[in-house]
Design brief:
Layout: H1 4-18, H2 22-27, E1 40-43, H3 47-58, E2 63-67, H4 70-78, E3 82-85, H5 91-96, E4 104-107, H6 112-125, E5 130-134, H7 140-147, E6 151-153, H8 155-168
Parallel strand pairs: 1-2, 1-4, 2-3, 4-5, 5-6
Length: 171
């Protein structure tokens, strides 16, 4: 009989192992090999992540995208971008994205807990990495700065300031 504690531990080991095999690299749309340095890692390829990647590509700044949307990852891989499919909170995926040699990491995931985990892993792998984080609530800013983020952005607040300034120009 296997205890639930051992089952959970085995499940974690199996999940980490699947990202390391060559067969699963293809299965999970992971780029063949990521030998970048001084690059940007983008965790999350939603509305914000897409715009950041677009701007980085225009500026010829190398980047790696980590996302759990297989369809998006397949499209990015087909376009020649370096990609990793999966949960960005997994330290093995950050290692595969060459976090130890990255200059910057941008975390656009919506929940603070995932962001705190990624910040912790990124700092463990590369103490000099610059961390940008996006929050959905103003109250999360303090926690993410405390976790080690260098820049924390709250787009809704910053957008409202920009919009307010534009409105005031009409008066």
């Amino acid at each position: 009989v296997i205890s639930p504690l051992i089952c959970n531990y085995l499940k974690q080991i199996i999940n980490k192992m699947k990202y390391l095999s060559q067969e699963d690299r293809n299965k999970y749309a992971i780029s063949e090999e990521i030998n970048l340095s001084r690059h940007v890692i983008i965790c999350g390829f939603g509305r914000i992540g897409k715009q950041i990647v677009k701007k980085l590509n225009i500026s010829h700044i190398p980047c790696v995208v980590i996302d759990d949307n297989k369809h998006e990852i397949d499209l990015l891989k087909a376009s020649g971008l370096s990609v990793v499919y999966g949960d960005a909170t997994e330290i093995e995926l950050l290692k595969y994205a060459n976090c130890s040699k990255a200059k910057l990491i941008v975390i656009t995931l919506p929940d603070r807990q995932s962001q705190e985990i990624i910040i912790s892993h990124a700092k463990r792998l590369n103490n000099n990495i610059i961390i940008f984080s996006r929050v959905h609530q103003q109250s999360d800013k303090i926690a993410l700065y405390a976790a080690g983020a260098n820049y924390v952005l709250f787009p809704e607040y910053e957008g409202s300031i920009l919009l307010s300034n534009k409105i005031i120009q009409f008066f």
